[in-house]
Amino acid sequence: MSSSQPNAGTTSAEHRARERQAQRNAVVELVRVAPMAEELGELFAAAGHRLYLVGGSVRDALLGRLGTDLDFTTDALPHQVRVLLDGWAETVWDTGIQFGTLGAYRRGATVEITTFRADTYDRVTRNPDVAFGDSIEGDLVRRDFTVNAMAIELPGRSFVDLHDGMADLVDERLDTPAAPEDSFADDPLRMLRAARFVAQLGFTPAERVVRAMTGMAEQISRITAERVQAELSKLLCGRYPRRGIELLVDSGLAEHVLPELPAMKLEIDEHHQHKDVYRHSLTVLDQAIDLERAADPEGEPDLVLRLAALLHDIGKPATRRFEPGGGVSFHHHEVVGAKMTRKRLRALKFSKEIVSDVSGLVFLHLRFHGYSDGHWTDSAVRRYVTDAGHLLPRLNKLVRADCTTRNRRKAAALQRAYDDLEERIARIAAEEDLARVRPDLDGNEIMRLLGVEPGPLVGQAWRHLKELRLDQGPMNRDEAVEALLRWARDQGIEPPADR
């Protein structure tokens, strides 16, 4: 059981005041959804059953941010819950009924109601032998963390906290109701959930939780790639993803779910100075998130950008070379990194779109440095925009975030160079349709003008015209036709006279 003692530097009076404030938050939040929640509580009470708001819903109510997706637990069996909901809810679904859960929707709120659980685990898989319990005490002790093991009984709103969850919430501490070794042995996914909650809530894991994660890290292999990916995605989309990533790496869990991260902790040779690639990547992640939030303060977290920021340099360990004179090089690490990114994200069962977008950003992230080192022609700017395609806004943020030098003059010069590039992109875009850089003649016109049938030759001609478009900008139709005919004659093709 976690300690209820306040953190060092916090007096008992201050601690009690914070607990009272959290309880007031919960009351305010419940009042906001009270008509629906109270109705449901009264409905179950009238039928002789007990109903509790539970888990993350109570935690979020105490934090003052209860949403409209509410979790309840009850002593009623699933078939009894179904009877009660059928006469109350607008919609009812029972896809989780084998685990004792029914869902319902009423007046803008979604509820899930689960019969008290007293599951046992075989500790080989993470699949429980589902068993229904007979008390709220038995149900709460099997939950993952103390801050998720509190309940509020309805109606009446009596508060149930058997594992010092309130104290841990106030102290921003993440601990388990039972011994963490037992909790993680039952379900190793809880170790990833610990890192995810650290990232979402900013809490500090209890020392015993970190010790258990470190000693049991290899058991995460019992968890499917899909489940791992879901937790990693939630972690990266949290408010404090760096904290979650650091917990994964420090505990050894990352070695089993994302080994490319700890591999970036390259040994620094005293004669060959270079940045700590792992720490650099965490800083890039922080800075990318700052840019993301500055661009759209109310927007959803950008998982693609955050993955790209974290993984953009994963090709460096494989490409590190010590050069004469004490230098270090990582030639083509963006190419190697893009391949590694595709392989890892596919293994984690990310969608094809996410795999393509993240690996594309990793591949492109160095392209800008050619601009900062010299002068690009308008043709080079067009190619940059065309190659980035729909990723351009994210690439802009990633490249800016990738500047972590402590040399203020160098950092300012890089930011000025990128400001200049963005201004040129905007100017050229205003003059041309950069979003759709295509040849000035389509495939049908190419076939008609050359007198050829569909085939590889049409594609070759199309690509030639696209290259001209990138190099020279838009051409009028007569110029495009002349360029096509000139290319055709160079290929030994004589266009028909009646074109």
From TrEMBL:
Tell me the ranges covered by the HD/PDEase domain, including all copies.
Answer: 273-444
- Identify which cofactors the protein needs according to its UniProt entry: Mg(2+)
- Alphabetized Pfam families for the sequence: HD, PolyA_pol, PolyA_pol_RNAbd
Indicate the segments annotated as coiled coil, or none if absent. 404-438
Could you tell me where the Polar residues compositional bias lies?
1-12
Record region (Disordered): 1-21
- Keyword entries, A-Z: Coiled coil, Magnesium, Metal-binding, Nucleotide-binding, Nucleotidyltransferase, Transferase, tRNA processing
- EC number of the protein: 2.7.7.72
- Select a single GO molecular function from the record's annotations and give it: CCA tRNA nucleotidyltransferase activity
InterPro entries listed in its UniProt record: Bact_CCA-adding_enz_type3_sf, HD/PDEase_dom, HD_domain, HDIG_dom, NT_sf, PolA_pol_head_dom, PolyA_RNA-bd, tRNA_adenylyltransferase
Broadest EC class assigned to this enzyme: transferase
Is Methyltransferase a UniProt keyword of this protein? no
Task: Output this protein's name.
Answer: CCA tRNA nucleotidyltransferase
Q: Which organism is it from?
A: Saccharopolyspora cebuensis
Which taxonomic lineage does the organism of this UniProt entry have? Answer: Bacteria, Bacillati, Actinomycetota, Actinomycetes, Pseudonocardiales
